[in-house]
Design brief:
This protein is an alpha+beta fold. The structure holds heme C (2 copies).
Amino acid sequence: MNRKNFSLLTLTVLIASFWHPASAQHETASDLISGERAFRQYCANCHGPDGDLIANVDLGHNNFRQSYTDENLVGIIMNGIPDTPMPPTPRVTDEQASMVVAWLRSLGEREEGMSGDPVLGLNLFSGRGNCMGCHMVNGEGSVLGPDLSSIALIRSSAELESSLIEPDAIVQPDSRFFTVQFKNGEVITGRLLNHDAFTIQLLDSDERLRSLDKSELQTWGFTTPGMPSLAGDFSNQEIADLVAYLASLRRGAAL
Ligand code: HEC
Ligand code: HEC
């Protein structure tokens, strides 16, 4: 990790001085969005949502193995790298490939500002953040919120950051909190597992499976947000540390 941070720093300093002025002039925000979309469609299944899932290959942090020009990278996308598992992507046009490159470069640029420490992030996760009160990682913690053991395989760092700062923005419908109120006033909050015309099954906050008869209930429904926003309680650096920790959770990665 230290080695990686070190090379990231030296490379971003080096690369920023070369390409930044040239690339800034022609990519629009919508090009970057198309680039991201094409990356997700054609590349993320191997390279991961942040482009760093394959060992020693890091596409999203301006940390390429060589100092490629944009044309070099477009060439790699179109033709693959011969004699390696990196395939050509014939369905991508030259123009789309340039957008992917622009998007990858822009990720690297964003990265310069915030770099988190995953070890500090883990401390916050299991300590002050009380994240384990709701989340499970590698079998430890609670099942109230989604299991985060391999969250980095499906979410980019930017998405992870926004789920910490503005959790309402991306809500997983099956993991929102569900609250029922009995006719006698008792309230139970938990995670909805199943429901039909007559009953509701939920996992209550003590993680017990409860099967409830709707005829005994006054009200029931989702209560959002389940995930508390960290904005305000945590500094930007602490959020970057948490994101760095979350971005390291990739249990079961194939590569
Ligand atoms: C089937 C899996 C797979 C897919 C799909 C894939 N790649 Fe790769 N890519 C690899 C592997 C493996 C390597 C490393 C090859 C090697 O050993 O040199 C690689 C290497 C690269 C490199 C060279 C990185 C460097 O630092 O030298 C770039 C750039 C790259 N891929 C971009 C992409 C892009 C962009 C896409 C989508 C258009 C994509 N790849 C799709 C597997 C894949
Ligand atoms: C009170 C329970 C609770 C606590 C405490 C909590 N979370 Fe969550 N979290 C949830 C729930 C429920 C969801 C899914 C629904 C949503 O997004 O609101 C969620 C969603 C997330 C997601 C998005 C998962 C995805 O699939 O994209 C991340 C990342 C996350 N939490 C991280 C954290 C971290 C880091 C902490 C500690 C700082 C934390 N959570 C504390 C309940 C909680």
